[in-house]
Amino acid sequence: MWPTIVNYKSLKVLILCLIVTIPLQSSEKQSFSIVIHGGAGWFSNLSDEEVQAIKDGLSNAIDVGFTALQSNQTSLDAVEKAIVVLENNDLFNAGKGSVYTSEEKQEMDASIMYGLNNQAGAVASVTNVKNPISLARHVMEKTKHVMFAGKGAERLALEAGIELVDPEYFYSEEKLRRLRDLKKEEKKWEQLALLRLTCMEIWLLELLQAE
Predict the structure, then answer these.
(1) Cα(2)–Cα(38) distance, rounded to whole angstroms?
(2) Which of 107, 111, 173, 188 could anchor a disulfide with 125, C-beta 3.0 to 4.6 Å?
(3) Same domain (yes/no): 25, 66
(4) Distance (Å, rounded) from C-alpha 189 to C-alpha 196?
(5) Rounded CA separation 128/144 (Å)
(6) What's the pLDDT tens digit per position in 83-102?
(7) pLDDT interval class at 44 (50, 70, 90)
(8) Is the model more confident about 158 or about 6?
């Protein structure tokens, strides 16, 4: 089966998923599958070109993962390499495309699991690790811990020789503007709610005074 894309536009939620099942050349009938989830959100305002760019990014990621499996690399290798492609693409909310926190910072998380031995590794709130998924795998395979966060995770990346970048690498004027617009909108509603509350307090005070 060739890569396919499922797009649930009828739900006004765009969920992009690629699935590949390819028979392996061996004496036994075996197959492997790759499923990539590119995120979900309200994408009704995206142009056809932007949607196509997202699909192309997913196709690229799944090609990289498939090639890894086809060349007899491990499933962990395939997963990590496919996710690195997404982390390096600013169209996805991971790595270079990470959105901002309410404090206008880009803090990234990543996790990876291996079902055969129940191992897991994760990192959280890293700001200068180019590919958090690689650090999560390092946590799983090279430490006795399951998760590192913040400065401790970044120090571990430095010690492990995992690529670090200046936080400016992740900067996105568009995403920052979107956050600031959202904060302005929330502030407006907060002020409106406060005004309504104040009006109600005045009305109750007048009502009590009238009694």
Answers:
(1) 18
(2) 107
(3) yes
(4) 10
(5) 23
(6) 999 999 999 999 999 998 88
(7) low
(8) 158
- Shared domain for 75 and 109, answered yes or no, is no
If DSSP states are collapsed to H, E and C, what string results for the chain? CCCEECCCHHHCCEEEEEEEEEECCCCCCCEEEEEEEEEEECCCCCCHHHHHHHHHHHHHHHHHHHHHHHCCCCHHHHHHHHHHHHHCCCCCCCHHHCCCCCCCCCCEEEEEEECCCCEEEEEEEECCECCHHHHHHHHHHHCCCCEEEHHHHHHHHHHHCCCECCHHHHCCHHHHHHHHHHHHHHHHHHHHHHHHHHHHHHHHHHHHHHC
Q: What is the mean pLDDT of residues 110-122?
A: 95
Same domain, yes or no: 20 and 51: yes
Give the domain extent around 186: 178-211
Identify residue 95 by its one-letter amino acid code: G
Predicted TM-score (pTM) of this structure: 0.75
11 and 77, same domain (yes or no): yes
What is the tens place of the pLDDT at every residue in 134-175?
A: 999 999 999 999 999 999 999 999 999 999 999 999 999 988
